[in-house]
Specification:
Number of helices: 12
Strand order of the largest sheet: 10-9-8-7-3-2-1-13
Shape: elongated
Distance between the termini: 38 Å
Radius of gyration: 22 Å
Structural class: alpha/beta
Helix content: 25-40%
Largest sheet: 8 strands, parallel
Strand content: 15-25%
Length: 433
């Protein structure tokens, strides 16, 4: 059985700022910042994203994001290893063990990104599968590839050595001290339009391998969009799964996330979290060759954080943490908002149209109730809603209630059972009732 969690994972991921190029020193610096400034607010995972095994990652960025048949670090059993020139503590076959140990020493948890399958080079070289008499070429499926990353072949279903490969791989990660695995090209194998969940069997093998380690490891599936008709499968074998393709700092993508959250709102549960993707805040895109500030306005940033939390999505920061400004940092320390990703808080969409959306949230044990008014318009908008019509608020007494707007701390007035607020462009008013 997969691990049951107390809340959706919260942490930092290296991709939005570093792309394929992050180094050990940079991971350590971000981990240290998280421990000093964000851990108390619930942030805990430090995740090294894609291509950590590539010695030459980023050296041909003007032509390739992922260099075809690049210079990779791999052991004799076809298992990718951290590139020593970027992660020097991995020298001598120590892998990510020393870095994970350092992250753990800060009171945090350590995670890595992987691509599904087995390295193509391992298959071409007929490398042995650890602890077996089988070989990489026998379990590799050359007809199962990723359309955007050239590193891997999929693993065949049900052939001898296939589960053993994943067992040895995940066992090695567990020995390193890995707490979080983000597996890519698996949630939606979007090269295969007629079979976009063609790697479902690999999800099952990963889940099985994790269970065998006895270690609490989060399994996160990418990329999206996840397939709503396979929700049961994601829920059974994974902890989180992407409901969108890569999410970036554009208003149109943020507004569309309301549609996606509406689709997936009934599938948020203990240890099962539909994933809205990373939070593109602060400084972004150094690894893409153009360091820049997020394009989201401060009001849009509040909208994003409020939606992610009221929906119950995992929270993964894409910023370079050491360059966060004080205003952004204060958003990420707002525990009254962040706590909604814990189990027990249930968010539901009340309304959505071209102008606005409304979400409610209720905790059945504590009785806490919230209402979020989201403005999609480019001008300030007076929004009103009859609280008595909200299903999660039935049975409440609204007499003399004084709702507090969570982000600002300001009080609001209810006239009868109707709450009215002036909501800024692309902004939110988030009330605790």
């Amino acid at each position: 059985m997969k691990r049951i969690m107390k809340k959706a994972p919260m942490g930092w991921n290296s991709y939005d700022y570093y792309d394929t190029t992050v180094t050990e020193a940079e991971v350590r610096a971000n981990a240290e910042f998280m421990a000093a400034h964000l851990k108390q607010a619930g942030w805990e995972y430090v995740v090294v994203d894609i291509e950590w095994y590539s010695r030459d990652a980023g050296t041909q960025r003007e032509k390739y994001q992922y260099i075809p048949f690049g210079d990779i670090e791999m052991d004799g059993y076809g298992r990718l290893q951290p590139a020593v020139n970027r992660f020097p503590s991995s020298a001598g076959g120590r892998g990510f063990g020393p870095l994970a140990e350092y992250v753990h020493s800060l009171g945090l948890k350590f995670g890595i990104h992987i691509m599904r399958g087995i390295p193509r080079e391992a298959a071409h070289r007929h490398l042995p599968i650890y602890g077996t008499g089988y070989f990489a070429n026998e379990i590799a499926d050359p007809s199962s590839i990723c359309k955007w990353n050239p590193d891997m072949y999929g693993v065949r279903r049900g052939v001898p050595g296939a589960q053993e490969y994943y067992d040895s791989l995940i066992g090695m990660y567990a020995d390193w001290g890995v707490d979080f695995i983000k597996c890519d090209d698996i949630c939606n194998t979007n090269m295969y339009r007629d079979n976009p969940y063609s790697a479902a069997h690999e999800v099952e093998m990963l889940s099985c391998a994790i269970e065998k380690t006895g270690r609490d490891i989060v399994l996160s599936l990418s990329p999206g969009p996840a397939l709503i008709d396979r929700a049961w499968h994601y829920e059974k074998y994974a902890h989180m799964w992407r409901i969108t393709d890569d999410f970036w700092d554009r208003w149109d993508l943020l507004q569309d996330m309301f549609r996606r959250c509406e689709l997936w709102q009934n599938h948020v549960g203990e240890g099962s979290y539909p994933d809205c993707d990373m939070l593109p805040l602060g400084k972004l895109s150094k690894g893409f060759g153009n360091e820049r500030d997020t394009c989201l306005t401060k009001e849009e940033q509040k909208t994003m954080l409020t939606l992610w939390c009221v929906f119950g999505s995992p929270l993964m920061l894409g910023a370079e943490l050491t360059k966060l400004d004080e205003e952004t940092l204060s958003l990420l320390q707002k525990t009254e908002v962040l706590k909604l990703v814990a189990n027990g808080y249930v968010g539901r969409q009340v309304k959505r149209d071209d102008c606005c959306a409304i979400w409610s949230c209720y905790h059945k044990d504590t009785g806490e109730r919230y209402l979020a008014l989201f403005n999609f318009r480019t001008d300030s908008y007076s929004m009103s809603w009859d609280l008595a019509e909200v299903e999660q608020f039935r049975g409440m007494c609204f007499d003399e209630m004084k709702p507090e707007e969570v982000w600002s701390g300001e009080s609001a007035v209810i006239q009868g059972t109707v709450l009215t607020a002036q909501v800024p462009p692309h902004g939110v008013k988030f009330f605790k009732l």
